[in-house]
Structure to design on (387 residues):
């Protein structure tokens, strides 16, 4: 029986996939896995029983990744599960900002009580809210991952000229991009040529304040900026000043802070990018599948602190070892099995930064003393036997 702790409400369609042998609750003790959305885990005491954490979403800022890696706790996220939801809101935000929809509707609301004169007042006052179409405009997409790629493709289908910047563009992602999307190799090109810029990169020390006074100065006058990734990617004080000066015609942010609230030209959305029932269902299903696959088979898919290693279903006996990325660990692991007179039928090992993960399949039973010796290998963090 595996105990699963839920720190936020997780869609039932996802939890139902655990099936027999699992219990899920928000009060589970000694859990083997945690499912979380936005709850912060930085001050949480991580029990020794904990093997995995799955974030039902893409961002993992609320999870202590390094601490988890050191304790042999694999952290998963659900890339792409909420991509369509965010993409739709980004496209909508581009139109809302360009066409001045929100100030226009607020103005129209103020006409209440004028009776038959409302129609004439609308026709007389609407010119103050004229805004450009997005068709034919240049959209610069910073980050062409799950969300950025969808935004780029759909914007191109809407008739926009799309340029995309991503220094880590993979072959798989490139193949999913529309041929109408032009990949550029310098972020300055995006800043200088775009009428609208949308940001889809993680917040790291390198990307913090990616958009600031200096980069804004290189942009076109009247540029519009969409930020549905993380608030810290755009310097709030600098973007506020740029909007108030008219350099930036509009800024839409899905992670508002006090600096950008109630500023003409800034649309502050209360983190609604992935707030759709479809997105919550998709994230829950993916998170549960990742945890279940890891607990039952030892396979890692979509981890953010350990390498992905997919060994498929367990056919015989399997040992799964989380360890430091140091020399000779795999040699010593295989030696223990060989010394037991057992044949290694399959062996996979991958590394990610300072950490690595190795899976060895073998036929036959292994002695308790041999099992204990795996933990004696220098660099080994956690050992699990399956089957």
């Amino acid at each position: 029986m595996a105990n699963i702790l839920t720190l936020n409400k997780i869609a039932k369609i996802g939890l139902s996939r655990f099936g027999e042998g699992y219990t899920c609750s928000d009060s589970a003790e000694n859990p083997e896995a945690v499912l979380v959305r936005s709850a912060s885990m930085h001050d949480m005491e991580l029990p020794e029983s904990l093997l995995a954490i799955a974030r039902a979403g893409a961002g993992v800022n609320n999870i202590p990744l390094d601490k988890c890696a050191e304790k042999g706790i694999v952290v998963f996220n659900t890339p792409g599960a909420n991509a369509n939801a965010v993409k739709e809101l980004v496209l909508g935000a581009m139109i809302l900002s360009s066409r001045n929809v929100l100030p226009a509707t607020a103005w129209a609301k103020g006409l209440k009580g004028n009776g038959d004169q409302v129609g004439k007042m609308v026709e007389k006052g609407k010119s103050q809210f004229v805004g450009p179409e997005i068709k034919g405009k240049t959209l610069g997409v910073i980050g062409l991952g799950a969300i950025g790629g969808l935004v780029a493709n759909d914007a191109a289908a809407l008739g926009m000229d799309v340029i995309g910047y991503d220094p880590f563009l993979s072959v798989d992602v490139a193949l999913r991009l529309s041929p109408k999307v032009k990949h550029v190799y310098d972020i300055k090109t995006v800043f200088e040529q775009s009428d609208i810029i949308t940001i889809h990169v993680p917040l790291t020390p390198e990307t913090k304040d990616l958009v600031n006074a200096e980069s804004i100065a290189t942009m076109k006058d009247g540029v519009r900026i969409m930020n549905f990734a993380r608030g810290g990617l755009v310097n709030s004080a600098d973007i506020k000043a740029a909007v108030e000066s008219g350099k930036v015609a509009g800024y839409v942010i899905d992670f508002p802070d006090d600096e950008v609230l109630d500023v003409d030209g800034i649309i502050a959305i209360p983190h609604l990018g992935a707030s759709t029932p479809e997105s919550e269902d998709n994230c829950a299903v993916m998170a549960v599948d990742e945890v279940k696959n890891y607990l039952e088979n030892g396979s890692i898919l979509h981890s953010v602190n350990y390498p992905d290693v997919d060994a498929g279903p367990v056919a015989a006996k399997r040992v799964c070892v989380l360890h430091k990325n140091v020399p000779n660990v795999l040699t010593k692991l295989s030696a223990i099995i060989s010394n037991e007179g057992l044949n290694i039928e399959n062996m996979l090992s991958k590394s990610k930064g300072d950490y690595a993960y190795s899976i060895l399949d073998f036929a036959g039973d292994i002695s308790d003393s041999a099992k204990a010796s795996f933990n004696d290998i220098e660099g080994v963090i956690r050992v699990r036997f399956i089957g």
